[in-house]
Amino acid sequence: MADFIDSHVHLADPAFADDADAVIIRARAAGARALVCIGESPAAAQRAQVLAARYPRFLFHTCGVHPHDAATWNRERDAMAIRDAVANGAVAVGECGLDYHYDNSPREQQRLVLAEQLALAAELSRPIVLHTRDAEDDTLAMLADARAAGVRGVLHCFTGSQRLAEAGLDAGWYVSFSGIITFRSWTDEALLRLVPDDHLLVESDAPYLAPVPHRGKRNESAFVSLTLARIASARDTDSIRLGRTTIDNTCALFDLPRVDLHDLPSNVHPH
């Protein structure tokens, strides 16, 4: 069985309100060595922080404002929430970014809110968890700004072009793949091979985007092993070795404590 870290899971989502503990225990049984619980809003981040406190050294949390909600951004309130979250252990700023597919917030406001969170990441010495969809040119500009500010991050649930992936890699960023790569509609095998071993992450993005054969069901971290196996197959490598590599990468990006894989218990239990 391949070990992994789920670098992006929305365990604070209402979809997990009734069984988050069971989902976490199933993830551990499937090979998860840690989970990064995404706070895509200050409210979600607070729930993620409470959940993470119950699973020390296994569950970690982030805080940011998603581009869908950029129109609600209040600089004083939300910047304070992000600072407070980091003071209480948040490992990254985000999920934040640009989404020109749904355009739930005006694009100018999305760019402004992303720039402010980028500045916070620089101030707080934390990486960015970036959402980008149909916004390649502005994302490229943001990556240049991040590089100038010394901010690293991850292009999460990546489905963009090789050009965008290469720009992120050139800026020192990581690229993360989700269950989308198991769908029949996925055709970019070259992209799965493009990302070097030392900048590759893997994620669920649960409760969304369950990999085949669970597509259409609620996703969960235990299914990351399927995504990892798909990447390993495309790269003609062993999923056990690749899983350990992605663990190292996730720990490096988020500055997670490094735990000897052999020292971890087979199950986790809430404190």
Q: How are the secondary structure elements laid out?
A:
Blueprint: E1 4-9, H1 20-29, E2 32-37, H2 42-53, E3 59-61, H3 75-87, E4 93-99, H4 107-124, E5 128-133, H5 136-149, E6 153-155, H6 162-170, E7 174-177, H7 189-194, E8 200-202, H8 224-234, H9 239-254
Parallel strand pairs: 1-2, 2-3, 4-5, 5-6, 6-7, 7-8
Helix pairs in contact: 2-3, 3-4, 4-5
Give an account of the 3D structure.
This protein has 271 residues and is of the alpha/beta class. Helices cover 40% and strands 14% of the residues. It has a five-stranded parallel beta sheet. Helix 4 (107-124) packs parallel to helix 5.
Structure at a glance:
With 271 residues, the chain is of the alpha/beta class. It has helices spanning 20-29, 42-53, 75-87, 107-124, 136-149, 162-170, 189-194, 224-234, 239-254, and strands at residues 4-9, 32-37, 59-61, 93-99, 128-133, 153-155, 174-177, 200-202. α7 (189-194) links the parallel β7 (174-177) and β8.
